[in-house]
């Protein structure tokens, strides 16, 4: 029986472990943290549970490829309730509110009523949302394993989408938004996502929501990760927690195991790193296998931006269920997250639809804000200054929340601030990023199969192999890695015992 060592018990690592066990391998996962899930996680503060990952999950719609994969790895099943709400978000400005409905027909009718003068842009946008439903973004196997017939079928499917793909991959979200005359519509689209990324990213997201494939699994991120851990253990897999991998052992151009940070070694026939990409390439492999493309991806942040954020989570002794689940608004004062970054828009999500998150009559809200990693890294050198800045941000956010949600005044019981350094400490995340690179019109990023030139029996997997990352990427690439190993060994890949 061939043995595989997997670095990291996040979604990609556990997915690789589950499919590895199903396909007859002996697998072991080494995880630096004390719990599974990686960045798919949550934490408790008093009576409240703060979710640190899922806003909505692609693959919750039954009979889709992704849904089948989530079920194969134990993340979803018939007993997990999926919540779908009508709006992606509501945007408030100058006393007006715009609801961004998930259903494209409803959205088109609603936007036309608000701004008949934008009829052309509205119709083209909603048409694109409908058409992009046909885009296959969750294939059963990686493109490099496709046969000629597979590729012909893929080309035939994508041909009708080419005009839309070409149009919206060549412009930014900001440029897309500027076509709308109505200021509220323009600002809603501009502030939904980072303004410099490809507009197609936003439209594919809205298309997924329009198809009904963007629900919330009750219990949230941490419980989903624990279900996968249970599935992996049921197949005989082993996870070693608080076991940080320091180096990947290489003998004669072949990965042969790992060395832990306590100096002890573990041997295997294959090594899969589902850990952070930079930590894998630069630290565990000493930078020896980074080609020019990889060096540029990890060094030129201006061209290849990443998600570096602060998450503020609040537990309040009041019911906020009457408010939109995801609300964007402008506070009276910007929230300064350090390094000169002032957040003009607050994106606030409440979790009143999931009663496992807070006791009855109480509410949890979370918000992500842009952050400057270098500034926080410098600040972290002084624990006193670091803690002061966290408290300052908590106070500024609470002031804004109490102003917009008056029910919370005097009722806030818990506040938690996760900085970019929090992501580094718990997940070893490069520059505190919780996803991989954002894709811009000028700098597209090709999928990386995960194998490195000059290093056999080694694979990288997870979101740092396929931008822009996220949970579906972790799931798919974890599966694809085992498919590649099975292909090398001429094993027939299986999805169940």
TrEMBL record:
GO terms for molecular function: oxidoreductase activity. Coiled coil: none annotated. InterPro entries: Amino_oxidase, CrtISO-like, FAD/NAD-bd_sf. One of its GO terms (biological process) is carotenoid metabolic process. Residues 11-479 form the Amine oxidase domain. This is FAD dependent oxidoreductase. It comes from Pseudobacteroides cellulosolvens ATCC 35603 = DSM 2933.
